[in-house]
Amino acid sequence: xxxxxQPKAMKPEHVAIVMDGNGRWATQRFLPRVAGHRQxxxxxxxxxQACTERGIRMLTVFAFSSxxxxxxxxxxxxxxxLMSTALANEVASLQRNGVRIxxxxxxxxxxxxxxxxxxxxxLATAGNQRLLLNVxxxxxxxxxxxxxxxxxxxxxxxxxxxxxxxxxxxxxxxxPDLIVRTGGEQRLSNFLLWQAAYAELxxxxxxxxxxxxxxxxxxxxxxxxxxxxFGGLGPDTPAVQRAA
Length: 244
Ligand code: IPE
Ligand code: IPE
Ligand code: MG
Fold this sequence. Notes:
By secondary structure, this protein is of the alpha/beta class. Helix content is about 45%, strand content about 15%. It has 8 helices and 6 strands. Strands 3-4-2-1-5-6 form a 6-stranded parallel beta sheet, with helices on both faces. The radius of gyration is 19 Å and the shape is globular. It starts with 13 loop residues before the first strand and ends with a helix.
């Protein structure tokens, strides 16, 4: 008797998120924008936990863009302070949950104390294998590509797709399968420009502080419905037929 079982739903291995909407979440509640960012950290903690429970191996989040320096100084200072506090408070729970944290971005303009905090968190969690959490902080896709090209040029290496992608910040990982953006905007805002080439994009109106397990499941379910073709004709067309 033929099996009626549905093919197993595809699960993304690498999920990336533009965590947008913190400021609007706060403004709606007559709170200062930094209160939204604080709530955003809570939301990230919940999301990391949910990803570990769902067997997602890699999560890459956009926490601060190269362009976010153009915000008012008190908001930037609030975000820097929040990162320091989060580092101090969260490393123990990352350890408990088997989460390895890595930071991606230009650390040079950050304070020595913050740089040290980032490094210590990376070292403390380096042996964890359940989930790899990449936090893009002072990150921009253009920064990453330009930096990689400059590194190759300095070594006199020819710039090819292969050599350039090997120089990029996330070169040791597969490209994200799914990029989620919360907060209703439908743009990448300089996130993972190179790596997004064949990612499935998922946009939700939910503001980042409101993004919970149900929202994550909705994004994963939407991903499972997509047919990824990578420029080919898809899995239903045998290669011989495609070549003919
Ligand atoms: C995303 O939330 C967090 C950062 C960019 C640091 P926003 O601060 O951009 O929130 P909105 O988009 O103004 O609501
Ligand atoms: C993208 O959000 C950056 C982060 C979520 C860290 P922005 O709020 O900075 O993006 P734009 O300005 O709306 O494009
Ligand atoms: Mg925003």
